[in-house]
Specification:
By secondary structure, the protein is of the alpha+beta class. It has one domain (3-189): 3-Layer(aba) Sandwich (Aminopeptidase). The protein has five helices and seven strands; from the N terminus they run H-E-H-H-E-E-E-H-E-H-E-E. It has a seven-stranded mixed beta sheet, sandwiched between helices. Strand 2 (86-92) and strand 3 form a beta hairpin. The structure holds coenzyme A. Coenzyme A binds at residues 59, 120-122, 127-133, 155, 159, 161-162, 164-165, 168. Coenzyme A (COA) binds next to strand 4, helix 4 and helix 5. Residues 50-191 form the N-acetyltransferase domain. Its main location: cytoplasm.
Length: 191
Amino acid sequence: MGMKESITRATNLLEFNIDDCSLKEFTTSYFHSSTTKCSKAHKLSSHAERQILDILESNMKPLYLDSKVKWSLDQKRDEMTFHNMRFLVCAERSSNQIVGFSTFMFDEEDGEAVLYLYELQVRGKNRKQGIATHLMSLVEDIALTTGMSHVVLTVFLKNTVAMSMYVKRGYKPHYPDRGIYCDEIMSRSCQ
Ligand SMILES: CC(C)(COP(=O)(O)OP(=O)(O)OC[C@H]1O[C@@H](n2cnc3c(N)ncnc32)[C@H](O)[C@@H]1OP(=O)(O)O)[C@@H](O)C(=O)NCCC(=O)NCCS
């Protein structure tokens, strides 16, 4: 199968399973106190969207302000509503409050079909409970199951917490000769 076909197939596959799925086809992972759902942006309730944007702003604005990259919540909101963007949303069972989420798209990177992770965010008070680990495992399972060659993501060099997690999970610079920037493009092979 060609690269473009792989991307379209993966996007459609997730679209097909997405509306009411709990990702059973993709994972055997189970996270005891929360549910994780996969959805498209327009399927999110406005309440969920508000929580997601609040988490995003409180987590990322300080990191952007500390970098050379301009912070824009409007740009983030636009990015999240790209037609092919997918969300994994992890919410507390008891309160339905969102504790973490990730967003990703199937795309082309350097001539290969990849899963590009756009966001990985955990609410401040829910950190260090394994939520990011859970979301990363799901994302990596999805990439493997859909035949992607890599999971690719971008991380600020100053974001040492996230960087150490990615390194621990086996992520390496995708373009080792890219030069010095405030961020790094990291990837992990699905093989
Ligand atoms: C980075 C982030 C997603 C981690 O979420 P989390 O749910 O707390 O992470 P987990 O509990 O699953 O821990 C995963 C790993 O992250 C690293 N980590 C998490 N918190 C850490 C801390 N305070 N200091 C150092 N490493 C830390 C560790 O490697 C940890 O693995 P371990 O538990 O085996 O030591 C979270 O801190 C966050 O949302 N930060 C702000 C947003 C962000 O930076 N997103 C990534 C953008 S690229």
